[in-house]
Design brief:
This protein is globular. It has helices at residues 24-38, 43-60, 106-120, 135-143, and strands spanning 2-3, 17-20, 66-73, 76-86, 89-97, 125-128, 145-146. Strands 2-3-4-5-6 form a 5-stranded mixed beta sheet, sandwiched between helices. Strands 1-7 form a two-stranded antiparallel ribbon. The model has no long low-confidence stretch (mean pLDDT 93). The protein is built from 4 helices and 7 strands. The chain is of the alpha+beta class and 156 residues long.
């Protein structure tokens, strides 16, 4: 999906504060939120993914093309996203919110910060991936993202 008008601000709700994560402690916060947001309830799988998220966040937090964003409500880190920048494009990945903090505007605040940072830095296209028909897909569509293309994903 691609944001139709990246120059237009997203409607911001809630009182979430947003920061660009820097350093190993921030990488660990990012990974913890990501793991909580994507948890399936299957302990072995969630533990494996949790460790993988920590490893990747620590490895990539200093990569110049990647930005890790953290959103907080009442001093608690509750949402995150990763942005990978290539010439002119900001790719949004790993949007996750702790389940107990969903629908309070925190991820919207992060996405608005991503949008404004991208425009300010000359990255006029903002793209992301979502499964057609999912809650995320309809959420992004309401924010002004449209389907640029659809690809098939095969699972065993």
């Amino acid at each position: 999906m691609e944001l139709a008008d990246a120059n237009k601000a997203l409607v911001e709700r809630g009182g979430a504060s947003v920061e660009v994560a820097r350093g190993q402690a921030a990488a660990d916060h990012f990974a913890a939120v990501q793991a909580a947001g994507f948890a399936t309830g299957e302990r072995a799988s969630d533990d494996w993914w949790g460790a993988y998220f920590v490893e990747q966040a620590r490895k990539n937090i200093t990569h110049p093309a990647q930005r890790f964003y953290l959103g907080s409500l009442d001093g608690e880190t509750v949402t995150c996203t990763l942005v990978v920048r290539t010439p002119g494009i900001s790719g949004v990945y790993a949007v996750a919110t702790r389940p107990q903090h969903r629908r309070r505007g925190a991820s919207m605040a992060v996405l608005e910060r991503v949008r404004s940072d991208a425009i300010r830095s000359g990255f006029s296209r903002i793209i992301l991936q979502a499964v057609v028909g999912s809650y995320a897909y309809s959420y992004y569509a309401k924010l002004g993202f449209f389907t640029r293309y659809v690809s098939q994903v095969w699972r065993k």
